[in-house]
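Revision sheet: structure tokens.
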Amino acid sequence: MRKSIIKTIVLSALLALPGIAKSQTFTGITSEQNAQNTPEGWTAVELPQMPAITSANTFNIKDYGASTSAADNTKAIQKALDAVPTTGGMVVIPAGTWMFGSTDQMTSKTEVLSIKSKTVLHLCAGATLKLVEYGKAPNNKTIFIGCKNRKQNDIIIEGEGETSIIDGQGTRWWKARDNKETFNPGAMIRFEQGSRFMVRNIKIQNTPGVNLTVSNSGKASHATIHDVTIYNPASDTKTEQPSHNTDGISIWGHHVNIYDCFISTGDDNVVCDDNAQ
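Predicted:
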């Protein structure tokens, strides 16, 4: 079923409920500090604590071997992510289409791309991070973009608007489900354990399964998600391949602030699971 949220504010502080170049510049979190939208009496959602981003701690994936002509850039992108020091920094994905996600390119057993604490992953305008086709990417609940060793803090994934895209090439995956093939994709983005996460100013589309998940059994908290477009075909569409189980944002933790997003998927747009207490 198609369901949409347009310019909607969702605040899920669940514990409080009853029951470089200009195109590569990190803009800080001032706007988020001004847009907490926290109801009176609720605890504010904590924001990522990031260092000053300079040319010294900015890493362009092209400098680590990534190429728009490459069949897979997983190792190159991971090298750039690994280059970020413990004090923090930013990894830049320039304009162009960058393939990633082959199982044989993974350096982690738990996620395709592993992001550590105090990292900004920045997609420039015109940048598309595209998952490789069905059959080459892991199909065993492996997270596509996630926290290194599943537990990190202070991570930002951001773009420069709707031309900054993460594309899951989900059509063949959804056909596999219709054909009764083994179908077990992980989330496109998942913050499994830790605190203070942010996703902003990007478009996520055609994911094989869930688009964005916050937490696992309440082990992650304090996430801010805004100005994000999430699109997957409706499960009952007749004009294109229907998508299945493509939740927009799945919340399993507490203190999650979602606002100014457009979400239209083949399942729930925003879902709060039982572990979101």
